[in-house]
């Protein structure tokens, strides 16, 4: 697991089950977040890596009950893209973890790809 610390920390830690673009990493670091990037997206790795994290910034890794229960500090899961089928929303809700998503985050890129194909 790779850890990236900001210059001036706000004390919040975000788990990235998959790495994100450098521009996105810089943006989060400038806001004072510490980033944890998982080496793998399997359940055991994510259960270990989520410990001490306040948030998960998610693309397509699966976040199940076991991972949610291991993340005792979790407050929010942000899903980049459409839908939250890869998150056990019912369990997250019971644990007081908010689940959000950005359905139009990559709409232009997808449209460009479809037209290009």
Key attributes of the depicted protein:
117 residues; alpha/beta; Rossmann fold; six-stranded mixed β-sheet; 5 helices; globular
How is this structure best summarized?
By secondary structure, the protein is an alpha/beta fold. 32% of the residues lie in helices and 21% in strands. The protein has one domain (2-116): Rossmann fold (3-Layer(aba) Sandwich).
Blueprint of the fold:
Blueprint: E1 2-4, E2 13-16, H1 22-30, E3 34-37, H2 43-49, E4 55-58, H3 65-70, E5 76-80, H4 89-94, E6 98-102, H5 107-116
Parallel strand pairs: 2-3, 2-4, 4-5, 5-6
Antiparallel strand pairs: 1-3
Mean pLDDT across residues: 87
- Sheet of most strands: 6 strands, mixed
What is the CATH superfamily classification?
Answer: NAD(P)-binding Rossmann-like Domain
As a percent range, the share of helical residues equals 25-40%
> How many angstroms separate the termini?
36 Å
What is the CATH architecture term?
3-Layer(aba) Sandwich
Total number of strands: 6
């Amino acid at each position: 697991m790779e850890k990236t610390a900001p210059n001036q920390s706000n004390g919040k830690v975000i788990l990235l089950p998959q790495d994100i673009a450098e521009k996105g990493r810089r943006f989060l670091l400038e806001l004072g977040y510490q980033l944890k990037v998982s080496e793998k997206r399997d359940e055991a790795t994510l259960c270990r890596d989520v410990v001490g994290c306040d948030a998960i910034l998610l693309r397509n890794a699966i976040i199940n009950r076991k991972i949610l229960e291991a993340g005792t500090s979790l407050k929010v899961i942000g899903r980049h893209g459409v839908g939250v089928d890869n998150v056990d929303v019912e369990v997250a809700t019971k644990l007081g973890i908010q689940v959000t998503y950005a359905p139009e985050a990559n709409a232009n890129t997808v449209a460009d790809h479809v037209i290009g194909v």
